[in-house]
Specification:
The protein is of the alpha/beta class. The chain has 13 helices and eleven strands. The strands form two sheets. An eight-stranded mixed β-sheet has the order 1-7-6-5-4-2-3-10, sandwiched between helices. Strands 8-9-11 form a three-stranded antiparallel β-sheet. The structure holds pyridoxal-5'-phosphate.
């Protein structure tokens, strides 16, 4: 089977979509909007934003430093880069995984870096600090961007040690990690800023929005300033900057979303439990990653091969159930973007085509999860039969 992009059709009217964002209802946002009528502050780190960043710092257990609120996950990444690494200078390369969402490397480009794509580790699905430390082009590298794939956090202590040993700034693209952080907590490292996205499709969203988390108060101040025209407290411009801050309107939606967060997490836990039960009932034998270290924006099926993943996708499509290769086939495979310098990307090539995103959202019904797992188990049987016909060894 050829694995061209034509085999990734978009299902316009799925019966079961792959994602179905659910943001706060109007009436839940209104009380916060009334603050704006009173204060007539609509942006510029106004009172709702201030309340929100304190509330988030509390929930995310940031005891020092705190949270800089941004207009999107992408501007959070740019703010984190400007605050920690600055614009590209002599060392122009930004080492990035190819297995990530496009914004990781667009943010690096926006700060003047040239992305250099490196392969990911087969287990963590992101860059391996020991391999980066031994990279032959290390002298030309100015910064390392590490993605938390599907919200799963990399080992921050290892990256902090890497950063100290090499002198290279490290930025974590943890765009999808908000819910993971609230569930599992995090040992923040002061020199490693973390960018989050509150885009509607993430587990916690406010439409468009994001945040930079940093336990070092000085880097945090630089991040707030870098996303506010270089201003903080005075009209004096300090440092490279953009307008990347969150508006008071989006802060209102985020406040209402936080009010509903405990109930939302309970819904996600229920869907997660439904997946565990249904996959067992229907005899799914492959690797299904739902919840835990992964964000509740995803349910991931790790097929034994790209062909097996594609067959599953087709079987789901036949029933109008959507699925998605969330990071495409890796950014190096995007025909309209790049090309970028790269290492050999054999792990990425296989992983990107084998990990298929299945439907996951807060009110996904138990009977829909059951149907998805029926298709999953049937596709596994077909794949096993095909593998034994081809004489390939079974891999379970
Ligand atoms: C969602 C996402 C982004 C982009 O966030 P926006 O808020 O859409 O700008 C960046 N990186 C990763 C890994 C993401 O999942």
């Amino acid at each position: 089977m050829a694995l061209g992009s034509d085999l990734h059709p978009v299902l316009y009217t799925p019966r079961i979509p792959v994602a179905k964002p659910h943001l706060p209802k109007t009436q839940a946002i209104v009380p916060y909007l009334r603050t704006l009528d009173r204060t007539r502050r609509y942006s510029n780190l106004g009172p709702v934003s201030q309340q929100l960043h304190r509330r988030l710092a509390d929930i995310l257990a940031l005891e020092t430093g705190g949270v800089a609120l941004t207009a999107s996950g992408t501007t959070a990444l740019i703010g984190a880069i400007l605050a920690r690494a600055g614009r590209a200078r002599a060392q122009r390369l930004a080492l990035c995984p190819s297995y990530t969402f496009v914004a990781t490397i667009s943010a690096a480009q926006s700060c003047g870096y040239e992305p250099y794509l490196m392969d990911v580790d087969a287990d963590t699905w992101t860059l391996d600090p020991s391999k980066v430390a031994a990279h032959p082009r290390l002298e030309e590298i100015g910064m390392v961007m590490v993605t938390a794939p599907y919200g799963r956090l990399p080992d921050l202590q290892l990256w902090s040690a890497f950063s100290r040993d090499t002198g290279l700034p490290v930025i974590i693209d943890a765009a999808a990690s908000f819910d993971v952080l609230t569930r599992t907590g995090c040992a923040y490292e002061p020199d490693i800023p973390i960018a989050l996205s509150f885009h509607a499709t993430k587990a916690f969203g406010c439409g468009e929005g994001g945040a930079i988390l940093c336990s070092d108060p000085e880097i945090l101040v630089r991040a707030v300033r870098a996303t506010n025209h270089g201003f903080l407290g005075t009209r004096q411009v300090i440092g490279d900057n953009i307008n990347g801050k969150m508006s008071e309107y989006h802060a209102c939606v985020a406040m209402a979303a936080l009010d509903a967060w405990p109930a939302r997490q309970t819904q996600y836990d229920q869907v997660t439990a439904n997946y565990a039960e249904a996959s067992q009932d229907h005899g799914v034998i492959g690797t299904l990653s739902v919840g835990g270290a992964f964000s509740n924006a995803y349910a991931l099926y790790h097929a034994t091969s790209p062909e097996a993943a594609m067959l599953l996708r087709e079987k789901l499509l036949e029933r109008k159930i959507d699925s998605r290769f969330w990071y495409g086939f890796g950014l190096h495979a995007e025909s309209g973007f790049g090309p970028f310098e790269q290492d050999s990307l054999t792990v990425t090539d296989r992983l990107a085509r084998s990990v298929l995103g299945l439907p996951f959202y807060c009110d996904l019904k138990a009977r829909d999860v059951s149907e998805i797992c029926t298709v999953l188990a049937a596709a596994e049987k077909l794949n096993l039969a095909a593998a034994s016909r081809n004489g390939a060894p079974h891999r379970v």
